[in-house]
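sorry for the late reply, my laptop died twice this morning and i had to redo everyting from scratch. anyway the thing you sent over, i finally got around to it. pasting the sequence first so we're on the same page, its 271 residues, then the predicted structure underneath. double check i copied it right bc i was rushing
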Amino acid sequence: MTNEKAEEVQEALWSGFLPLKVQVEDDGMESSASLPPLYLQAPRQAPVGAIQEQVLHLLGEGLPAGSVALTFWDTHQVHLNSNYPLGVVYDLLESGEIPWKLTVKCTRDHQGDEARDQFFNALKAASYAATGSAQHVITMPTAEANKLWDACRAGKRQEYKDAATSFHDKMENAQRFLVRVFCRRNKQKLDSDRGWSSKHIESKLKVVAAEKEGLMQTRQALKDWLQVDTDLETARLTIAGIPFPLELSLVQLWRLLRAPDYTLYIVVRWP
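ok and here's the structure:
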């Protein structure tokens, strides 16, 4: 596949948005119990925590004084990991509900931007895996890093590429890349008591050599990683919400469907 075609696929991927219905809860806000739900669209590719600013903007003057951070929970009161792409978490936890109903809980007097920090930590990890160094990310000028983060949470692919000029080509042509596989059995119901734990959702992070494991068919790589003998056709497999041919190699899928943090996220849901 040509680089031009891969770029077209990436552009289409970044244009995907999820409709959300967000209910706000905050014991420190007298009116929070009566607040109507917020309706918004968020980029599938952006980390869960990246939608915080949208929610804060919609809340407007209803916010309490002082610095506020938000945590996100699904309809079963399962806390959402804010550092993974929103679409990946949706594909893992939900079964097609639109709009996705979320609950937002406010944390008072919070310092720092946790979602932004987690995103750049993920980017550093991907850079280290790809090039043996995270310096390309660590030494980014603040203005460039701010543009990168703003483009990521807005779902603007070209602006993201423009801000990533100092390291994008190095990552694109690296000999290694990251793949994270999430595996869940649908019969395992998540709730606030059990939450998102390793007992119910298996997560594996792999550093893949582009010219070795990267050339393997994804079918064989997943069977090896998940240590299963059964046919993967019985599972629902998606990347960014898209079913994909298991015959494609990992490196092909990474070039086409990777997330903004240069990691390929694969979701496997068994019956």
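The chain has ten helices and eight strands.
thats about all i looked at so far, will dig more tmrw
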